[in-house]
């Protein structure tokens, strides 16, 4: 069992050798302690590799595209396909992969018409093996956990990290320990962790409480932590941006809009954009904007009330449980990428999230509530003039519609806001609801229902 992760042990002859760099004091080291914090100033670490810069951008683009036609395990992964910009393990045998990445980039014709933004896309990370963007990071971090010889990996989670970690641990022959807030994660995500064989602990606290416990645990027990504090996770999540740019033929969009919870994903995408610019893969930076739920708006408040200088944490509350986080670990990394790319940070209400989720569903793709903050946030940025209709905008949909069926059912049945302060106001969302119809099991009843629906079909111009 290794007590730390070192770059020396994970470099490959003839391949890039990475280092850990503290985002606070800039200290560069070859190894990281179990909590992935700087031993001098306790700030978070990121991975850096001077050899990444020496790559020829034109050659990289054609190499990455060519790999899409190959059948080697590493090439079939939409993450490891981009391995020239990733930390590499000693041996390809160590790589734990479930063919993650290579997710679709969809046009959103309905939302395009409604917002007037003609080039509006959704990068759907919910199409990953366990149904969320976490898989792109987990393949890299689980690989390094396995290489370091860990028997146990662990995470605190609002659900998706735990589902992903449990799956990759199972594939990599490791055991997994999950700490989740009791009653505050969807059954769908919890059931995934159980099926993949995780030791799952439901704690009487929130996500922030689970993460605090995990950080204390890794200092006492030989478990490898797989939260996004682990910089290998963020390296894998960088590939979302690489893949997106490849799908856009390396023409940078004007805006990328991403949900913000613990703020690992925004940090990873921002890091990728800055590296791409430095290497010459792109000629200009898209703006990266982060959207949070009003009730879990730590980054919004950190920027508005503290100018991004210190974290303003909050007691988080939102029905978008994936981002029910009040004390985001990667807030400093996220502030840096927002400032570097010129992006904005906005918050959206529970009603706005519910409407946006229904609208993304009506595009025939769907997503989980946390992902829908991107469309809700886009409308606000548009109104504020921070996004212009003639610009190219990409929404990052982080999780599948199937991740939170309770929320979806409750919305369509009209129960989502029952008994809340927004109950009255939520009636305006009735046109987005499609509640199930209970009818007799007769042909007449089905035909009558069909005819009634036909008369009220908003897409039928003869109606
Ligand atoms: N969207 C979904 C679907 C998520 O599951 C998360 C985070 C986020 C957005 C926010 O991403 O934390 O990188 O800012 N889920 C974590 C989890 C916290 O435990 O599954 P972030």
How is this structure best described in words?
There is one protein chain. The chain is of the alpha/beta class. It is 38% helix and 14% strand. The chain has 17 helices and 15 strands. Helix 11 links the parallel strand 12 and strand 13. Helix 9 packs across helix 11 and helix 14 crosses helix 15. It starts with a strand and ends in an 8-residue tail after the last helix. About 2% of the residues have low confidence. Bound molecules: ligand F0G.
What does the secondary structure layout of this molecule look like, with pairings?
Blueprint: E1 5-6, H1 7-10, E2 19-22, E3 28-29, E4 31-32, E5 45-48, H2 57-67, H3 73-76, E6 105-107, H4 109-115, E7 119-124, H5 134-147, E8 152-156, H6 160-171, E9 175-181, H7 187-195, E10 199-203, H8 207-220, E11 223-225, H9 231-237, H10 239-247, E12 255-259, H11 264-279, E13 287-293, H12 298-306, H13 331-341, E14 345-348, H14 350-361, H15 369-383, E15 392-397, H16 405-413, H17 443-455
Parallel strand pairs: 7-15, 8-9, 8-11, 9-10, 12-13, 12-15, 13-14
Antiparallel strand pairs: 1-4, 2-3, 2-5, 6-7
Helix pairs in contact: 5-6, 5-9, 6-7, 9-11, 10-11, 11-13, 14-15
């Amino acid at each position: 069992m290794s007590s730390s992760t070192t770059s020396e042990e994970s470099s490959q002859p003839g391949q890039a050798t990475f280092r850990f760099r503290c985002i606070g004091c800039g200290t560069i080291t070859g190894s990281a302690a179990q909590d992935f914090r700087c031993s001098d100033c306790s700030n978070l670490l990121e991975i850096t590799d001077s050899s990444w810069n020496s790559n020829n951008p034109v050659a990289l683009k054609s190499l990455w595209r060519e790999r899409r036609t190959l059948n080697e395990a590493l090439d079939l992964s939409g993450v490891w396909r981009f391995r020239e910009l990733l930390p590499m393990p000693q041996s390809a045998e160590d790589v734990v992969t479930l063919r993650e990445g290579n997710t679709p980039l969809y046009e959103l014709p309905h939302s395009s018409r409604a917002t007037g933004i003609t080039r509006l896309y959704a990068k759907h990370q919910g199409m990953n093996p366990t149904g969320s963007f976490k898989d792109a990071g987990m393949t890299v971090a689980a690989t390094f956990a396995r290489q370091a010889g860990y028997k146990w990996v662990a995470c605190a989670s609002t659900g998706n990290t735990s589902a992903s970690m449990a799956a990759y641990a199972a594939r990599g022959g490791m055991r997994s320990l999950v700490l989740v807030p009791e009653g505050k994660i969807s059954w769908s995500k919890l059931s995934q962790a159980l099926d993949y064989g995780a030791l799952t602990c439901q704690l009487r606290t929130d996500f922030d409480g689970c993460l605090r416990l995990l950080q204390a645990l890794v200092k006492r027990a030989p478990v490898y932590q797989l939260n996004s504090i682990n910089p290998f996770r963020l390296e894998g999540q960088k590939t979302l941006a690489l893949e997106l740019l490849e799908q856009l033929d390396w023409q940078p969009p004007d805006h990328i809009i991403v949900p913000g919870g613990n703020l690992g994903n925004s940090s990873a995408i921002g890091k990728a954009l800055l590296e791409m610019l430095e290497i010459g893969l792109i000629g200009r930076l898209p703006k990266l904007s982060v959207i949070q739920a009003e009730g879990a708006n730590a980054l919004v408040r950190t920027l508005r009330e503290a100018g991004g200088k210190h974290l303003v944490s909050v007691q988080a509350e939102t029905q978008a449980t994936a981002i029910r986080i009040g004390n985001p670990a990667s807030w400093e990394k996220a502030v840096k990428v927002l400032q570097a790319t010129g992006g904005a940070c906005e918050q959206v209400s529970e009603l706005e999230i519910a409407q946006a989720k229904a609208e993304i569903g009506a595009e025939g793709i769907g997503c989980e509530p946390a992902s829908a903050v991107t469309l809700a946030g886009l409308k606000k940025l548009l109104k504020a003039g921070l996004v212009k209709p003639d610009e190219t905008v990409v929404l990052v949909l982080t999780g599948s519609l199937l991740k939170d069926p309770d929320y979806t059912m409750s919305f369509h049945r009209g129960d989502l806001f029952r008994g809340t302060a927004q109950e009255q106001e939520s009636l305006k969302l009735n046109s987005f609801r499609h509640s199930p119809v209970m009818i007799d099991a007769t042909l007449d009843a089905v035909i009558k229902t069909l005819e009634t629906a036909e008369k009220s079909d908003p897409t039928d111009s003869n109606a």
